[in-house]
Amino acid sequence: MFSQLIIVVTFLFAMILSVFRLPDSLPLMLAYLRPEWITLVLIYWAIALPKTVGMKSAWIIGLLTDALLGSLLGLHAFVFMLVVYISSSLYQRLRMMASWQQSLFVFAVIFLSQSVFFWTGQITGTVQWTNLYFLPSIISALLWPWIFIILRSVRRKFNIS
User: Fold this and answer.
1) Which of 45, 91, 113, 134 could be disulfide-bonded to 53 (CB atoms 3.0-4.6 Å)?
2) What is the CA radius of gyration of the chain?
């Protein structure tokens, strides 16, 4: 029970980071440098504990994210389920990969998720193309080694298994 609470806290922290506003004095273009915090945490837990954080968890977190960000209801839930499916089906291979190889995987998965968001945004007319649209997937991949180390230390400190 305590381990599930710690996992929930990591997701809440990621959600807070996702909605954290940048100061008005900074250029709006810096918003594209924001990594996909929730997706990064979801990938970690899907790799570390694939039986605990699975499709149901991804669906619930996705619906909460949709409500939090005011996006199309079910969109994040669908994308997060896709991310968890890919991550948990490859979790044994990913555990054996070097950090830079895992970063490439994270880039590919987040790029795929952003492509789905962009595609649905184009259909609904809520997204316009910019050259910086896919920059968060690069930033997320660059941050992956540190996210992995931090969440692994949390998992080990609280003996989450």
Assistant:
1) 45
2) 15
- Per the CB < 8 A criterion, the answer to whether 105 and 47 are in contact is no
pLDDT tens digits for range 14-51: 999 999 887 777 787 788 889 999 999 999 999 999 99
Q: How far is CA 18 from CA 36, 69, 125, 145, in A?
A: 7, 9, 22, 19
Alpha helices in the chain (DSSP H): 2-19, 37-48, 55-69, 75-89, 91-96, 99-124, 135-157
Helix boundaries (H) for 70-132:
75-89, 91-96, 99-124
What is the value of pTM for the model shown?
Answer: 0.95
CA distances from 80 to 65, 69, 96, 114 (A): 10, 14, 23, 11
